[in-house]
Amino acid sequence: MMPSREESRKLLKEYIESESLRHHSEMVAMAMEVYAKSLSKTEDEQLNWWSAGLLHDLDWEKFPEEHPQKAVEDILPNNGYSKEIIEAVEAHAPDRTGREPQSEMERYLFACDELSGFMNAVSLMRPNGFSDMKVKSVRKKLKDKRFAENVPREDIRKGAELIHKELSDHIQFLIGVFKNLP
Fold first, then answer.
1. What is the mean pLDDT of each run of 10 residues along the chain (182 residues)?
2. For the chain, what is the domain count?
3. Domain span holding position 17
4. Model pTM score
């Protein structure tokens, strides 16, 4: 039996104390779920996609040197998560695991992770956050290498390619997902 949303959020809180990392995890989960809906996935598949988004950085705070291996080898299997979710979490960090995103869920998780974090940083610089954000303002910040300099721009471009979307369309989709966030 797949863990419920409540169980997944409880697990997230057990491993992540940072409010900003929890917020990032929730944003990626939202993006994954809305993309799953847009791709006509079943309710169970939507829950899987949401869970992969929520838990992709589960071990980052407590086990940074082992991320994401600690999650994929110990934490997620011991808490009843599917092979599909575990493989998506593993593939979201190919530079650490050697596993490139292959399945549809894996590609979307890779595509949503860094861009969601980057867009959150952009929203924090804006008086109205996401509510009136434009693609142009996000793309302008992407060109500024000093802004959110720890976010790999190449991963953002690669992510859009992996899901066969123009980067501007991917950004616009995520603005729609996040427009009601504070």
1. 96 98 98 98 98 98 97 98 98 96 98 98 96 97 96 97 98 96 78
2. 1
3. 5-178
4. 0.97
